Amino acid sequence: MLEEYSKSKPNYYNFEEDKTGEASWYRVAQSILVESPLELKLKKEPTLENIYEIVNQICMHFKELIENNGLCKLLYDGKDKPKHESASQLLFFGIAYAYCYANNLDLTPEADAGRGPVDFKISLGASAKVVVEIKLTSNKQLAHGYEKQLPIYKKAEKSQKGIYLVLYNGGITKSRWENFNNLVKNSALPNIDVVIVNAIPKASASVADD
Questions:
Q1: What is the C-alpha separation between 170 and 103, in angstroms, rounded?
Q2: DSSP-assigned beta bridge partners for residue 194
Q3: How many H helices and E strands in the chain?
Q4: Vertex 10 angle, CA 5 and 16, to 5°
Q5: How would you class 80 by CB atoms within 10 Å of its CB: exposed for 0-12, middle for 13-18, buried for 19 or more?
Q6: Which pLDDT tens digit goes with each residue over 65-117?
Q7: Residues 6+ apart with CB under 8 A from 154
Q8: pLDDT band at 26, cuts 50/70/90?
Q9: Which of 34, 102, 128, 162 places its Cα 20 to 30 Å from the Cα of 122?
């Protein structure tokens, strides 16, 4: 078996094309932090609400960058094919990390307290935790992630609040999208908010004006 392995040809990853978004997130995140700074103010003795406000601001800044600053392009390959969900998770991590670090907040990706890994846990000590779960609308587990998955993660992490960050990238029928929105509207899950991001690439300004 070792002999066969030594003769096999390695699969090289093209970092220039970066079809799965393994590297581009870091370069872009670094430039975004310089070009689009976000002023966040954490109190000297922050409450849970203060920490949640910071996390929510980061999510809304991420939404703005995706919808109006062209970052949605990083979620697709050169042929407009949506990348794996991990590409959006890496991009969010790259942007959120510096903001959390500047405010002495601990950002933990893939935190797992025994019921499976939540995408992100943002915390200050053991008493104030906010979890963030990211889902693409092309993910067939969209509704399940909101209704079942995130509440379980929140409970396992002993987190008091959660944000379900939904990136609309198509791949969902009109009826299923309407059902999800009705679910969010009528479920009233405690301490879980939904942030919807339009991640469909927009035409350039010159094309839009024609």
A1: 35
A2: 164
A3: 8, 5
A4: 165
A5: exposed
A6: 999 988 888 888 876 788 889 889 988 998 888 888 878 888 888 765 555 57
A7: 118, 131, 161, 162, 191, 192
A8: low
A9: 34
Position of tokens 């407009």? 80
Contact criterion met (CB below 8 Å) for 86 and 57 = no
pLDDT in tens, 133-185: 999 999 999 999 999 999 988 888 888 899 999 999 999 999 999 999 999 99
Burial status of residue 137 (CB atoms within 10 A of its CB: 0-12, 13-18, 19 or more): buried
Instruction: Decide if pLDDT at 36 tops 90.
Output: no
Q: Which of 114, 121, 182 is nearest to 146 (CA)?
A: 182
- Cα–Cα dist 122/96, whole Å: 10
- Amino acid at position 115, single letter: R
Cα 133 to Cα 60: distance, rounded to the nearest angstrom: 14
Q: What is this structure's pTM?
A: 0.82
Interior CA angle at 205 toward 34 and 72, to 5°? 50
d(CA 208, CA 210): 6
**CB 183, CB 153: distance < 8 Å:** no
Burial category of 136 from C-beta neighbours within 10 Å (exposed 0-12, middle 13-18, buried 19 and up):
buried
- Tokens 């954490």 — which residue? 42
